Amino acid sequence: MELKKSLNITKSNKNKYFIEALTEKIFLISALVAVISLLLIIGFVFYKGLTPFVSKGYSIIDFIFGRELVKSHK
Predict the structure, then answer these.
(1) 26-47 confidence digits (pLDDT tens)
(2) Contact, 25 vs 31, CB < 8 A?
(3) Cβ contact 34:26 at 8 Å
(4) Cβ atoms within 10 A of the Cβ of 68, count?
């Protein structure tokens, strides 16, 4: 009788450790997806924000300290 209880406890512990390891992997994957998504969003914002300064030749210093408004031609 005591052997059966021992086997049931061992099975129960194995199931708990399996579930714990599985949830740990799920949370790790979720965290990695969130971090990668955040990095992609930040990269996109910087790319779109710096494009006029790099490709069109606008000065960042004039943009920050300038007093003249340059309207877009749209």
Answers:
(1) 999 999 999 999 999 999 999 8
(2) no
(3) no
(4) 5
